[in-house]
Amino acid sequence: MADETENQAAGSKTDAKGPDTGATSAAKVTAENLRVLENVEVQMTVEVGNTEIKIRDLLRLNEGAVIELDRLAGDPLDILVNGTMIAKGEIVMVGERFGVRFTEIVDPEKRVENL
Fold first, then answer.
1. Among 50, 55, 77, 92, which residue is least crowded by beta carbons within 10 Å?
2. Residue 21, domain extent
3. 108 and 61 in a common domain
4. Is the pLDDT of residue 27 over 70?
5. Could you give the maximum distance between any two Cα atoms of the chain, in Å?
6. In terms of domains, do 35 and 70 share one?
7. Do 101 and 92 form a contact (C-beta atoms < 8 A)?
């Protein structure tokens, strides 16, 4: 009986090591998969704001028309990747072009919730 208990204890130790080895292997696979994905292109969008408008009003728009958006001047902008918000940011100038400075990164768990 003592031998059985020792064998069970030894088996427990082996079982305890098993998941660690598997987790390490899974981490390696994830790192390899990540390297494969590094060259995949995604669509990044910076959203200034939005509004709803009736088609009748949309058809009446002409040059110089101004549409009020749902954000205040100076509010952070939403940065989306393939339609999922990943960060907040602000507009900056990069030479002659617009750029965006990331000011807040959305927690990865919250990103998954928004999918």
1. 55
2. 1-40
3. yes
4. no
5. 91
6. no
7. yes
Give dist(CA 72, CA 51) in Å, integer.
13
Number of domains in the chain: 2
Owner of token pair 């749902």? 70
Residues 6+ apart with CB under 8 A from 93: 99
**Residue 75 · residue 110 · CB < 8 Å:** no
Which two three-digit tokens encode residue 59?
Answer: 């058809």
In whole angstroms, how large is the CA radius of gyration of the chain? Answer: 26
| CB 91 within 8 Å of CB 98 | yes
Q: Which of 90, 70, 88 is nearest to 78 (CA)?
A: 88
Burial of 39 (0-12, 13-18, 19+ CB in 10 A): exposed
Residue 113, pLDDT > 80, answer no
- Whether the pLDDT of residue 72 is over 80: the answer is yes
